Amino acid sequence: MNKADECMKKIERLLLVIPVDIRRQVKLEVSTLYLEYLHLAKRDVVSNHKRDK
């Protein structure tokens, strides 16, 4: 299992203990943060690659 899968499993376990009425909002927040993380991580990889040349 890779790191991304491990993170998703942890998020799913956390969502189970969150009350149903706020679960949807939390999922939205987590999704937004995850997409932002992916964007930043991708940008870091690109900038590191350019710097290494």
Automatic annotation (TrEMBL):
Organism taxonomic ancestry? Bacteria, Pseudomonadati, Pseudomonadota, Gammaproteobacteria, Thiotrichales
List the protein's name.
Uncharacterized protein
Per the UniProt entry, what species is this protein from, by scientific name?
Answer: Piscirickettsia salmonis
